[in-house]
Amino acid sequence: MTMQPPKVKKLSQYLSWCLGLFFTVALLSWALRDINLIQVMKAFQNAKPTWVIIALITFLSSFSLRAKRWGTLLGAKRDPGSFEIRQTAVFMGFAGNCVLPAHGGEVLRGLVLKRFAGIPFPVAVGSIFTERLLDVVVAFILLLLSLWSISQQGVEGLENIPVGWIALPLIGLCTGFFLAAWCPHWIIKILQQMLRVLPGASWKNTLLTIVKSILEGLEALRYPRRMFIALLETFGVWGLTGITYWGLMQAFEIRQPIAGAFFVQGLVALAIALPSSPGYLGPFEAAIRFGLERYAVPPDTIIAFALLLRALMYLSLMTVALILALRLGISWRDFSPASLKSKQ
Q: Does the keyword Flavoprotein apply (predicted)?
């Protein structure tokens, strides 16, 4: 019996890996179908550098704004640490997501904040969960607005989208998390009552710790002014990222309204939530192809767009993260158990 939990965990990890591999291969194969590599390279080489630079600037700026928003959320009842530390953690975390499975970069973000700002790891992770909640809400709102806009334009396959019905899950999600933020003790009591009838002990404590960390991260939702600022910052983050997509569309002479860029961005945000290999290989390309095909963009141009967007995003994140980490004096020793324990 003592060996069963590790076996179950190993089986779960194996199934997760297989599912991720399946989505990667299936979606990447779909995205790359009927592609002429010579035409892809020609389209890639013909991209206008000025628009690529504009896209790069707006993309990197969105992560600095993420660091600012993180301070807004953490500062509800504590010192959020310096902007420099938060910015370094954000860039390192998102760079880590490019190469680590299961969004492992988020753990790295929390560790950086714990090591250099002294913020407890559960608190940091809880605040990251709140960030993700805001990201989902705002990304979904922008996707709905773009869907409504392009449905009026008669874009193929998107003429009669029931935007109002699609918005209902978003309303339910927001309501649920606001109630959780305002009534955390009720959530804990209900969870404890449910866990009492289930066998085992150690996993219950782990689950309770995770839920408490998430609820503590939602604490900023109880401060209307701070929440309003964080919401505005989130719109700013996704607005800058949307301009990144639009800028690259101009670089490839894809002359569509900015609503089209927000539509593609929203599809990518949904797609990368699927299990896949590190770096979202497969879902990323498939979402871009599906979105740009609505505008009759040639497949070769779409794949060139996806390649350049991936290179712009991932290479810039890796480079800036490395520079900021060196500037802050971060080394692997900073994440050793002894080093992290000393900051508790």
A: no
Q: What is the pTM of this model?
A: 0.83
Cα–Cα distance, 47 to 306 (Å, whole number): 12
CA distance 279 to 100: 8
CB 270 within 8 A of CB 287: yes
The label of the residue with tokens 């990323």 reads 284
CA angle 237, 138, 322 (to 5 degrees): 35
Domain boundaries, the chain: 37-342
- C-alpha to C-alpha distance for 330 and 171, rounded to whole angstroms: 41
Closest CA to 173 of 140, 210, 208, 222: 140
d(CA 279, CA 101): 8
Tokens representing 33? 């179908």
Question: Cβ–Cβ contacts within 10 Å for residue 205, how many?
Answer: 11
Provide the residue type at 324 as one letter: L
Top mean-pLDDT range of 133-137, 246-250, 252-256, 291-295: 246-250
CA 46, distance to chain mean position in Å, is: 30
Asked which of 178-192, 221-235, 308-322 is least confident by mean pLDDT, the reply is: 178-192
Measured in residues, the chain has a length of: 344
* Mean pLDDT of the chain, nearest integer: 84
Per-residue DSSP letter, 160: S
Phi/psi of residue 329, each to 5°?
Answer: 80, 30
* Tokens found for residue 152: 């009026």
Distance CA 18, CA 27 (A): 14
DSSP string covering 58-102, please?
A: HHHHHHHHHHHHHHHHHTTTS----HHHHHHHHHHHHHHHHHSST
CA distance 163 to 146: 10
Backbone phi and psi for residue 162, each to the nearest 5 degrees, phi listed first = -80, 75
